[in-house]
Records
---
Amino acid sequence: MTADTPAPTAPAAGRVAGKVVLISGAAQGMGASHASALVAEGAHVMIGDLQEEAGTALAEKLNADAGRQAAAFTPLDVTSFEAWTAAVESTVATFGSLQVLVNNAGIYTPGSVADATIENWTRTIDIDLTGTFFGMKAALGELRRNQTSSIINISSIAGLVGFKNRAAYSAAKWGVQGLTKTSAMDFGPDGVRVNSIHPGSVETPLTANLKRGFGQVPAGRAAQVEEISALVLYLASDESRFVSGAGIPIDGGETAGNNLRQDS
Ligand SMILES: NC(=O)c1ccc[n+]([C@@H]2O[C@H](COP(=O)([O-])OP(=O)(O)OC[C@H]3O[C@@H](n4cnc5c(N)ncnc54)[C@H](O)[C@@H]3O)[C@@H](O)[C@H]2O)c1
């Protein structure tokens, strides 16, 4: 927080009013959009990311827009369990508790098993899969204490179907789905819901340089970040209190079936 951070005010109204959320990889892209949507609906949001400057600037903007101390930045490298522990502690110290964890940080590396480099395999599994495991492990103590908690793991359609030439990414994102379903079984009795969401193509810096057509997508286009944030907001809120262990595609219909139209 900075000297410009507005003083704490009475709790805001909204669909997630009073909830404290920690989002990994929230300095840009989808994570930044989730932070903005959650703050607009009354949450307190801790932005965890490697990018300190962008993350701090986003927190300041969200605070100014909300007119309350709604967001803060904490440095986080999701491949470090110690960094996760510090991020959870910083969230509780800043906002008093933690009810929602969004495991969003992720990278995307190319290559089939034949040509993916071992370095890219290891880095992708470390960030996309082990980072999610570390986040859940570090946050569980606080999440269990609150009894109405929600973990939202950001997978991909690459975690629902095979994904040509993306061996490491697909393996990591399928792993996130398995970790999600298993954890929903393990922690449901403690009041912690665990779900994964599986976006198709979304317009973010991650996909800015990818060239692809949308002939295989019934909706015929990529998603805007706000469309994914709407699902994150629902899963963070108590509106979804009976939803756990779900892996929800949000892909314009891309994985609904075999679309025989040519990609265009
Ligand atoms: N964009 C898409 O089309 C798409 C589709 C499906 C799933 N996803 C998934 O959604 C998530 C967000 O994707 P995006 O498109 O917004 O990506 P992005 O590249 O725009 O943002 C990713 C963020 O994660 C942060 N990050 C990277 N490594 C980190 C680490 N080790 N520790 C902490 N933070 C780290 C980056 O600094 C960045 O702010 C990812 O998990 C991605 O796999 C994206």
---
Amino acid sequence: MTGRGDDGSRSVDLADLLDLTDVEAAALERLDPMTLGYYAGGAGEERTLRSNRAAWAELDLWHRALVDVSTRSTATSLLGLDLPAPVLVAPTALHRLAHPDGELATARACSDAGVPMVVSSLASTLLEDVVEATSAPVLLQLYVGRHREVAEALVERAERAGCVGIQLTVDTPVWGERHREHRTGFHLPDGVDVVNLRRHSPDVGAPTTGGIGEILGWTVSPTITWDDLSWLCGSTRLPVLTKGVCRPDDARRALDAGAAGVVVSNHGGRQLDGAPATARSLGAVAEVVRDADPAAVVLVDGGVRTGADALRALALGAHAVQLGRPILWGLAVGGQAGVARVLELFTSDLDRTLALAGCASLDDVTADLLDPR
Ligand SMILES: Cc1cc2nc3c(=O)[nH]c(=O)nc-3n(C[C@H](O)[C@H](O)[C@H](O)COP(=O)(O)O)c2cc1C
């Protein structure tokens, strides 16, 4: 059932949304053009953005017949944590553009579902408040930019707040060129800010108020190298995952530098346009990581929208997948309840897909599901 809200937008009955495509369509109807351009857009011609989705669908799933799947589990463990399903919320900036409760709504939905949340350095809510709002594990996504002391301060805050890990984003020597943001005049509306970074602005002589352009300028830096990863791994007791890797040799270097694993990601098609779809880069990366260190973690994100996509990712060697935009669509549609609906749709679809593929647990998800010949 749908009707008209006070603001003229169509209100949505979450029960009518049957998959993540439905949630996206409902969100597109509701979001203002500026937020929509920022959330939905990719870099350049958006080739990688499109191929992220398409490449998962190209992988057939060769199901096993006549397997007893009456008792099933999607449970897994990751970084020493027991999780109900192999899914995390990817770090995405500025949740308060989608809903006034922003990251707090996301964190509460994660709490109910037991799904870990990776909080962006560009979050619009203080990291400490997000951790406080959820009983689920929280990781900090970090950019190491011009001023190492900002990264240092954020890591210290993450450790103190009780975060369980860090994802260091490594695909942003500079920002990708996202035409949609220019066309819609992306800016920070009143009351929405990158509060975690802003807190450290005075320490590095950066503006404490004003537009996002300047703050984004010192958030990332083209001078960042493997030495920075080694430094980070040596300066925190938290496990560090390197987010934004597509090459096996880079994955190997990340482990050599002390990383606990990698996130195969192209930033949702927002950085290098032309980077391979993650469904195409994942397999080779996972193989190298497994050979180098069987305990290391491999996550993947980019266009993951269905249980079948998750199954494909696991069969290619990932330990879990991350959801980016679908979480923002859920927030836009219904705040905490909208994010909860996204997580519920995704995990129940994964459970059904497991059964249909003839797998009773994630241990049964092996490479032959993609090609038994
Ligand atoms: C609006 C938006 C903001 C994002 N912000 C960040 C960020 O602050 N840090 C980061 O490492 N990745 C960021 N990402 C990338 C996501 O973590 C993730 O890699 C990507 O969204 C996955 O693809 P998907 O959106 O197709 O699921 C952002 C993505 C979007 C769409």
